[in-house]
Structure formats: C-alpha cells, structure tokens
Design goal:
The structure is a single chain. Helix content is 23%, strand content 34%. Strand 8, helix 5 (168-185) and strand 9 (188-192) form a beta-alpha-beta unit. The chain has 2 domains: 2-232, P-loop containing nucleotide triphosphate hydrolases (Rossmann fold), CATH 3.40.50; 238-318 and 327-359, Beta Barrel (OB fold (Dihydrolipoamide Acetyltransferase, E2P)), CATH 2.40.50.140. The chain has helices spanning 42-50, 96-100, 111-121, 138-150, 168-185, 196-202, 220-225, 230-236, 317-321, 362-366; strands spanning 4-13, 16-26, 31-35, 57-62, 65-69, 72-73, 81-84, 156-160, 188-192, 205-210, 213-218, 240-247, 250-253, 256-259, 266-272, 277-281, 294-302, 308-314, 331-337, 348-353, 358-361. By secondary structure, it is α+β, with helices and mostly antiparallel strands. Helix 3 packs across helix 4 (138-150) and helix 4 (138-150) runs parallel beside helix 5 (168-185). The protein has a 6-stranded mixed sheet, with helices on both faces. The protein has a 5-stranded antiparallel sheet with strand order 2-1-4-5-6, covered by helices on one side. It has a 5-stranded antiparallel sheet with strand order 14-13-12-15-21. The structure holds adenosine-5'-triphosphate (ATP). Adenosine-5'-triphosphate binds at residues 13, 16, 18, 36, 38-44.
Length: 374
C-alpha cells in the first residue's frame, strides 16, 4: 500500500480545470518532485494535499487515513503535514527559537532541547537562536523554515519551491543539505519546483504535469532518457530529434546507424540528449560507420565555461558518398562540448553517440498519451 495515495482527484475554479483526474502514489520515505509549466496545477495539487483546498472529486489517503473524499476534507491542522513555502514564510517579529518552536506546546518539558536539536539537524549554529529572520541569510531562513516544519514530526513534508529565492551556489548547497536531512529522517517529501535539474537531482520519483494532468511519472532516469513524448523530453532538458527508420533495434538516420531502446519497426523520430555525443576533429573524411559515427562541420561555438556548445552541420548522404540518399538535407545539431576540447569554427569533426537513442513512434507524436505508470 502507498503511504500517500491520490485517486482521480479533480478541481475546477469556475471554467478552469485546475486538476483533471490525478492518480499519484508515494512510497513511505520517498521524495517526489512535481514539475510542469506555469498554470499546470502543481500548487493546486499541493494545496489539496495540505488541506487548504478540497477536491471537487477524488480521494486523498495518507497512511491509511482518508484526508479528503470529494469535498469532505480534513482541515490542515489535523493532517500532520509540514509545509515549507517559497520565501520560508517565517514570522518576522519572532526569534529563530520562537519560529521553530511555534507549533510546540509551551508546556512541553523538552521544548528548548527539541528546538536546539531541530536547529542542529538543519545544520545551523545555536548562536542564531535569538536572531530575527531579517538577521539571517536566505539559506539560513529556509533551514529555519524547514526546522519549524519538522518540529511536530510531520508524516509528510511539502516543499513549495523552497530554494527558488536563493542564488545558484547557495541553492545547490541548501538543496543538498535538505535532501540529506530528509533522507536521514526518513520523511516522505513532495517538492514542487520550476527547476528541472533540481527535480531530477532531488527526487527519486518525478511527476510532470501539464494542463491539470500528469503526463508521466517515474524515476529521474526514466523520465530523462525515456520520456513518453517530446513535450516531456523537452521540458526536462535539451533534445536532438531526428527522423529515422527503425528495424531490429537499429535506427537508420542522418547520423548513420544508431542503436535504439525500442524493438518495434517502422518510421519514427529518435531522440538523443546533447551530452550523448562526443566529437573528434578529423582530417581525412571517412564513410560513416555504426552507432552515430557521422561527419559534421563546426558552424559556430559558444564558450560558456562548464557548458560550452558547438553548432555543427551534418554531412549529408550525398556529401559523404557522392550518391543521393534519404538524409540529403542539411541538419544542424547543437552539441555540448568540454571547454578544453572546443573545436574551431570550420573544423570537420566525427560524431560518436554513446548509449542508445530513445524512440518516439510516429503515431504517438501527434496525440499526447495520458499518465503512464513506469
Ligand atoms: N483560486 C483560484 N481561482 C481561480 N483559478 C485558479 C485559482 N488557483 C489556481 N487557478 C487556476 O488553476 C490553474 C492551475 O493553477 P496552479 O496555481 O495550480 O498552477 P501551477 O502549476 O502551480 O502554476 P505556477 O507554476 O505558475 O505556480 C491555473 O489555470 C490557474 O489560473
């Protein structure tokens, strides 16, 4: 049985369908990230789980307890669910200690020790206990907010874009610290974020939403490498999509012959991630071999430190062999290149593909398939 179970959850605001039948399962102690474009229903879903909104239809069950059955809904304070908002939402007039202890009874004997434990758990020093929120850095404020959310030992923690106000370095550091803390405490967590990389690195289950529906849910690796459709693929990172003819697990395409992750045959589009390519300058043009051993000319390069890119133009079949072929159209690919191996513009390079390409069968590209459990 799942620890948190949502079944056919629906919510409308007037004519707007905010949630159109959500089924979601969370295992105890797991971390789930919910991503999706603006207006896809992420906040509404979180608010329904927290109890700030009731669904029009559908059920929310936490650890065997029915929290919502259609509009009949348990109020937020009786759900044992902790929430950390985007800005931390600390009480500005209270000290750090008072913020953390807000939900703990003043008659609770071990109150002060519990507050100190929570502070230590979130990696903060006891010297800040008397400070007010405006005397803390953004990262410290978020950790205090987390300590406050953990104070009453919630069964579930909801993180609503808690790292978005932090700058890049602090963001990664705070995310890592929070992730380790939640894992150590074994607390089931849902993170809503706009940041795809954050979702992939934080969660062990990622759900992609669009227009009030879950398009796909699975492990970060499944979603990144085997997205159900091009929209999910592009939402989670850059893609290179090429028309191909698939036969016996091999795609025949402009890159040559590439191994694919699907054994069905027929016309399709294959998808590769830019980091699957390696490029090697060549002096002697050679015929393409297997698994993406194709030739291309470097059109432009962009030096961006850790993320450098090279725009290359694939050699067409005619350029390679002198004979017409089905790949006789110029194809531009934007590839990721190491800063120490960034080629000069005009260089002829050999492209090699690591791993297999993912296949989007033609019939599935036009019609978006709903949620598929993986
Ligand atoms: N209180 C409300 N009244 C009317 N419409 C609402 C209300 N709350 C949300 N909506 C609508 O429901 C849909 C889903 O909104 P929601 O805030 O859940 O999306 P979201 O994915 O969290 O968006 P964002 O990423 O921008 O925060 C949107 O079309 C939104 O305009």
């Amino acid at each position: 049985m799942s620890f948190l179970e949502l079944r056919a959850v629906e919510k409308r605001y007037g004519a707007t369908l905010a949630l159109g039948g959500i089924d979601l399962d969370l295992a105890a102690g797991s971390r789930t990230a919910i991503v999706g474009p603006s207006g896809s229903g992420k906040t509404t879903l979180l608010r329904i789980i927290a109890g700030f909104e009731a669904p029009d239809a559908g059920r929310v069950v936490l650890d065997g307890t029915m929290l919502a059955d259609g509009p009949r809904s348990t109020p937020p304070h009786r759900r044992d669910i902790g929430i950390v908002a985007q800005d931390g939402a600390l009480f500005p007039h209270l000290s750090v200690a008072e913020n953390i202890g807000y939900g703990l009874s003043r008659r609770y004997v071990g109150r002060d020790a519990r507050i100190r434990d929570l502070l230590a758990m979130t990696g903060l020093d006891a010297s800040i206990l008397r400070r007010r929120p405006d005397q803390l850095s953004g990262g410290q404020q978020q950790r205090v907010a987390l300590a406050r959310a953990l104070a009453r030992s919630p069964r579930l923690i909801l993180l609503d874009e808690p790292f978005s106000a932090l700058d890049t370095g602090l963001r990664a550091h705070t995310r890592q610290a929070v992730s380790e803390l939640l894992t150590a405490a074994g607390i089931t967590t849902i993170l809503v974020t706009h940041d795809q990389a954050e979702a992939l690195s934080f969660a062990d289950q990622v759900a992609v939403m669009r227009l009030g529906r879950l398009l796909q849910i699975g492990t970060p690796r499944q979603l990144y490498l085997q997205p159900v459709d091009p929209m999910v693929a592009e939402f989670l990172g850059e893609t290179i999509r090429i028309p191909a003819l698939i036969r016996h697990g091999i795609a025949d395409c402009a890159l040559g012959r590439i191994a694919v992750d699907d054994d069905r045959s027929g016309e399709a589009e294959i998808m590769l991630r830019p980091e699957q390519f390696a490029i090697q300058p060549v002096t002697e043009p050679a015929a393409p071999g297997d698994n993406g051993d194709a030739l291309a000319e470097v059109i432009s390069v962009d030096f961006g430190g850790a993320t450098c890119t090279a725009l290359v133009r694939l050699r067409t079949g005619r350029e390679r062999t002198g004979a017409a072929s089905r790949t006789d159209h110029a194809m531009l690919l934007r590839l990721r290149v190491s800063p120490i191996a960034l080629p000069d513009v005009g260089t002829l390079v050999r492209l090699t593909v690591a791993g297999r390409a993912h296949v989007f069968p033609k019939d599935e590209q036009s019609e978006r398939r709903p949620y598929r459990s993986v």
